[in-house]
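Notes, Module 5: Reading structure tokens.

Key idea: the token line is not a picture. It is a compressed description, and you learn to read it the same way you learned to read a sequence, by spotting repeated patterns. We will look at two proteins. The first is printed below with its tokens.
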Amino acid sequence: MYLLVWLKRITWLLIFYFLLRFLFLFFNIKSFQFADAQQISYAFLYGTKFDLSAIFISNSLFTIASLLPFRFTEKQRYQSFLKYLYWIPNIIFFWINIADFEYYKFIGRRTIFEVFGIIGDVFAQSFSLLGTYWYLVFLWILVSFLFVKFTPSSTNIASSMGRILKTIICLLSIGFTILFFRGGFQEKPLRINQAFEQHDNHLGNLTLNTTFTFLTTIDAKGTEKVSYFTDNQIVESLVKRDRHSHFSASVTPQNVVIIILESFGKEYMGYKNPYKGYTPFLDSLSKSSLFMENCFANGRESIIAMPAITAAIPQLIEEPFITSSYQSNKFAGLGSIVKKYGYVSSFFHGARNGSMGFEGFSQLAGFDNYYGLNQYPKAKMATDFDKNWGIFDEPYLQYFATELSKEIKPFVGCIFTLSSHHPYPIPAQYKGKFPKGKAEIHESLGYTDLALKHFFETAAKQPWYKNTLFVITADHTQFNTEKKYATPTGAYSVPFILYHPNKQTLTELKNKTDSLKICQHTDILPSILDFLHIPQSQALPFGESIFAQNRGLAFQLNSGVFRFISQGKYIEMSLDGKAKGFDLKTDSSIKDFDTNQLKAYIQYYRNGLIENSWIK
């Protein structure tokens, strides 16, 4: 009997979360005016998963207390205690959901734990806020009253079950609580970004509930506002980027293929280095491409590279954007932007779906399709799975080429390789074929390079090949063995290659920029838009087309130190503004440097995250 009461109360909560989602839709109906009934229905249905997670997180103590296998739990005094343990936390969480009916209109996302950072401002304006939003308080009281009034009763709680059976049920309940808490049996727990399957910021926030976003960001590092400049116009003038188009619209629509190579630092290539390297094919391709010699990754992790490359979002807070509490903020990713111009976009990663948060972020960035391990042909899995991360690079790149040929033209396809990731697996038939090198990764680089060669051989036979811009880069560098790259900036040096099979187009690419110009991952998105003659107005200002006639720049954040690289020099600065300047070639100290532009980017980035104001 006591188990049935507990189930009824959990179901009662689920009904109220459905009601709160409906009211959230009602209060923000203008945000969903472009969504059809099917999309709204899906958001409600999929939202149940997040509701269950929120309910089991917020009621974990109530669940355990309800199902304890002891006699005293049947006493009326204990049952009264359970009611309050049930009512009080849930009524509090009802309030933060109801407050979001209006707060969402200001920040464009569900409230996260960081709201405590402005709690002082809330208290200071409490009377004014109550005067304006009195109806929310009334609604909260009404919802709370209905919740308490009709809570399933605990009368006749006595149970004939033995203690052993009760203990088993209690242990099972703990297991189910953990299961629903994490959203299922998948490898990674349920995350905020997984609510954005419909590639729409508003629909994702309809799918979510505020209890979930609040509780799952409690341990997030977050950030605080900075105020290097009191005038925001100064900040915006310092971060303003060139958004002019430097290419004419092509008569034949151009496709784009982005290849992100796992751990392929520029150090590992022979091209532009005074040694042979481990990438003979990539070297040969670079010779007939536009090769940007001074490109820098925005970080040293794959999850930092993903948003930088596909959405021009660097890491300028201590936590990667993908795992931060701000991942549901408004921004325009590559997929979202090109979709408006008739492009279909797809993201490929041969690892398990959900790995690194790529699937969820690809949806936020607007990619129409995601291909992970779940989508790979089951018949080929036995031979192609590397028994570690996912599919070996050679078969997966062939799969990538095949799937691109099925795409509606024009398309944007992006692939993230994985064989050059620890433990660096190599198929049996290729063992001993590639140089061992000086580091464990070097042999696997040779394998991925060969896989890349075979991909281009297959792609060259496809009808879409001749009308495609290939963009090749690496997510980050890895182990340094060459003195040239064992420097603060060398440790971020990655290839950035643009190749086009059409010689005339390739020549135009080379003629429109300086290959020695400093650039970074966040420049890739605006550069692609520039080439496609698509307006760059939606691209965030943390990147700029490499074809813009401005001096290039790059920035990173590592262990609390910001680095700003510009022509001939770089600055290292802590958040308090204390900075040092260095010569880019010699790493020797210099005194002539200016921190204003770096400070402007930090202020624009951090304050914009908190206010969700990157996109006005």
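Here is the second protein, with the sequence above and the tokens below, as before.
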Amino acid sequence: MKTAGLIFWIVIVMGGGVLACGYAVYRAALTPEQANQAIIEKTYIDWSQVEDDPSERLVISWMPLPRFPNGVEGAFGERIIEEIINIDLKPIFMDAQGYERRKPLMLAGGDIPHVIFEGNPAHARSDAHHGVIVPVPRWLIRKHAPVYFKMISDTDPNGWLFANAYGENWGIPTLWIDGGYPNPGVWRVDWLRNVGIERIPQTLEEFHEALRRFTYDDPDGNGRDDTYGMSGNAQAWHITFSEFFGAYGVLPFDWMELEEDGRKRIVWGGITPRAKEALEMLAEWYEEGIIDPEFVTDGMTRNQERSKFINGRVGYISQLGRYLDFEWEMNPNALKPMMAQLNPDAEIAVGSFPVGPYGDSGCRNWGSAANIIVFGTSVAEKPEIVIRALKMMEYFVANGPEVYIRHRHGERGKHWDFIDPTREYAGGIRLLEPYTDQNVWEREVLTIWRPECPLYEELLYSEEEKQHRSKYQPKDKLMVDALGKPDIVPSAPIYLSDLQNMQLTFYTDVICGKVPIEAFEQFTARWLDRGGRILTEEANELLQVRDRLYQEVRGGG
């Protein structure tokens, strides 16, 4: 390698560092003091002195997210980038269970890959605290991947907040484009007509009336009292009655930014007065009988809820109106073709987000900021690996759609083709046999990292998908956590899961009439006392960090 006075040192914490921590300690939630203390004992690299010789072939161990457990070394995507960037990749594939259990054991035992995908900020912060990753300054990323840096900063700069901890940047953000669109619900249009409603409901009042008629006016005409307006999902906090809370301008399980007297502050949406109003409305709807009483047990996978909609038990279902879930021909579980097959007499259509009493409407989604790519302390022996990885990321987003799609999907004519070759990009793309089989695709085409670039990705949308997103998924209806993700605050691993479970239980009990809405203030006090006050203080500190980061990454500082 070419270095000029490369300086680095490794200070082993607690006499054995991560090796001595052990699996249990590594995975344990950090105390507030640990979560907030500065990490002094860390691997330090003087990046100003590191130079990369592109003629040297570098070996890079890479642990991607556990989405493709059937991936194998030497797949198409890996081979092409190895040739272009002059690297030898050693991927570490595992499933979600392995990622959850095996990865901490590897890191605690000192088996630290060069590159690690972390799914959320809490994991990256834990890695930093335990000294298994190295900080990577933003100026280095901007220097070696300027197009990529700008793409993140322009699309969703919260990604930089995800990578920030202890006053330093610990990784490279990635994007999830679909997270930047709100997901509407779906209506049984034939039911609407059967009960005398001629247009898709637009306001909360219209939603309420349609759901009431679905419950009591025999919308399927079978003469039996066997239908409900809608069900729900009391087990998935991130989508629980999201559009109905959105009609009150509330994100009940996220941080929200408010401004009063010219000052900004962060609050937990679920303890605000408007959250109470939305909750009271849902309790009234449940008492009226228009919410399926089994919504409590519909489950995280939503299979039961989908089944109820397809089989005619409910006439409205949340979230499933996005193009990929509703009618995308590459999705075998898309709602519209599945309904046509299983219930051919049904007519369905994507709905709107209900407008509430204050003029609000919208729906929660995660936003476009996704995960964080971090670098293990193993790169200290060869820090050029970080620069080479940055060059790889830059290559995919700075060289046009052909390069981008080749890496993401493979070779045209072998792995994929345009749906309509005469329209090319305007018609969208489809996978070819046998690569429509996920297992085959993972073994032969899979890449260790599939970048998402809004400019190129939207070229791959068919005109039908573009029109669908524009009409039914307008970005101005997207509601996102003010800090990107609720677990970004340092003490989230200690308190947040307990608080979420407590809130879900309370909300469900209120909706089902087991607890009166008047208990909301006691719930709020309990939420604050059980860690919420600490989290709120940390969230407001992060608001200041976020605003400084926004100014830096968008202003060129």
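Summary for the second protein:
- The longest helix spans residues 520-555.
- The chain has two domains: 8-179+370-411, 186-364+489-555.
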